[in-house]
Amino acid sequence: MDKSKRLFLKSKRSFRRRLPPIQSGDRIDYRNISLISRFISQQGKILSRRVNRLTLKQQRLITIAIKQARILSLLPFRPKAQGLKKAQPFKRRQSTARTVGLRTRKK
Q: What residue spans carry the region label Disordered (predicted)?
């Protein structure tokens, strides 16, 4: 195996150790907004298990808690649009003559 392939294989693995996202004392509940909000993306989506580094049981409990918090209006379904202009009502422009082929239709 030449040197370029070995470098590629080595770069795949990461040796960073991170703390587990949920400590043993943390309780997964819809009222624990500080815990739940860590598992929601900026777009308001629930992050996947791989991203969260949770067990299957923890991910299920987090998903249920997030959905309950949204229903009870503790969390928004969609986050506030940051940096976007306020939605303006649609304004209709004056009608123009419509063309049919090369001729214009008379009103």
A: 83-107
